[in-house]
Amino acid sequence: MGKEQTLFNTVETNYGDHEEAMAKYRAEGEDRAMNLDNRGPIRFDSDGRLSRDIVEAYWRCGFYVFENVIEQDELADIEQDVLNILDRAPVEPGGKLDRHGRAAMGSDGKGGGIALVRPLSDPIGGTEANNGRHPAKMIEPEVPDNAPQWVPQVVGGSLQFSDAALRLYAHPDLLRVAAEFNGEDFSPFNEVIWIKHPKLGGSVAWHQDGTTHWESTEFHQGSHGFNFMAQLYGCNSTNGLWIVPGSHLEQADIKGWCEAAGSDRLPNAVPMLCKAGDVGITNRQAVHGSFANTSEESRVTINFGFHPRASVIGARGNGIHAPGSENIIYDEDRIQKRSRVLGLAIEARKQRFPKETPYFYQPHSGHSFEWNDAARESLRGYNKLDLGI
After folding, report:
1. Residue 312: how many CB atoms within 10 A of its CB?
2. Nearest alpha carbon to residue 293 among 202, 192, 189
3. CA distance 38 to 51
């Protein structure tokens, strides 16, 4: 660990009054976060179910921090893959070449790739992007004179580019957590790697992920599933995600909240504070976002989510995570095809961690999978089947 400085170069910055206001806001948010009683190791009761106090805290807050989930050897695997991915990033949006003049990752159009943003920018807040679910723009700190024009922010379809991320996707304890909240027949969603470049990383405006089920007569506190957020280097109140506790129970007036606050600093929000190897779980209905990363520390989050199967069957795609899916009604066939990735991930994890008891995914009963080079190649473009709701 600790090799990230080879690709995460620092710059000289002067953020002025904005940073002074943020410093106070961060300190107050950290205090609120540490008083929520929603963090600790993954624990299961004698019946094999996730401990009831964890379940209660998750549903109360809309998120939980699982501590010390990922061991050092697995973190090292992930780090090496992330550094390789960044080394192959395009130098501009839609670019075909990386900084070495080679074909950039994902530039062949088969699926997945690396999205870039302007340093310290909020490219989607206050726009109609992502079905307009980011209604208020975040403050954009002044960009340093020597900053690059673009910085990587999101690696889409990440499991096709990182064997380590694919193996983490099959972490047995995390999958047991998924079954607790979404049922044993839980459905896949989407996987990305979020990157917050030190002193340059862009923001993500406040939003609620779910777009399709708010008006459903069967809406409930977990209708839109959740995301796991595994931290490679940890995250703090400057470079990490912020969440409004308890906001997953109904659709929020985010724009009104920001107008009432007089800024993008929502008064009840708290940062998700994690160390390296911690994994946050966040309800997709919770109001969350992140500020521009003005810190000297990079954040790398291995992000993957799951849904209740009942929320996906018969739902119309939201078109955000798999373009064109807004015209598709999800059925069992689509879910089964998308779930194949999890079968491959479980087999890949078995090879890397043979002493570990693998997770048994109930919908794959009677199916078999094999992890090899051909299977790896077959993952290209798997994210075109993402199940966004």
Report:
1. 25
2. 202
3. 12
Which uninterrupted H or E stretch holds 333? Answer: helix 332-352
- The pLDDT-based confidence of 5 (bands split at 50, 70, 90) is very low
Residue at 366 is within a domain: no
4 pLDDT exceeds 80? no
Domain that holds residue 44: 3-310
| pTM for the structure as a whole | 0.95
The residue among 350, 356, 304, 67 whose CA lies nearest residue 186 is 304
Q: Look at residue 22 and tell me if it is in a domain.
A: yes
Q: For residue 345, what are its two tokens?
A: 């991930």
Query: Up-side HSE of residue 369: CA atoms within 13 Å toward CB?
Result: 24
Residue 376 lies in a domain: no
- The CATH code of the domain that includes 225 is 2.60.120.620
Amino acid residing at 109:
G
Residue whose entry in the numeric block shows the structure tokens 């690059």: 148
- Look at residue 266 and tell me if it is in a domain: yes
> Angle at CA 314, nearest 5°, toward 313 and 320?
90
Among residues of the chain, what percentage have pLDDT more than 70?
Answer: 96
Beginning with the edge strand found earlier in the chain, give each strand of the sheet holding 226-231 in spatial order: 39-40, 63-66, 279-283, 226-231, 299-307, 187-196, 151-156, 113-117
| Residues 295-309: b if buried by 16+ CB within 10 A, e if exposed | bebbbbbbbbbbbbb
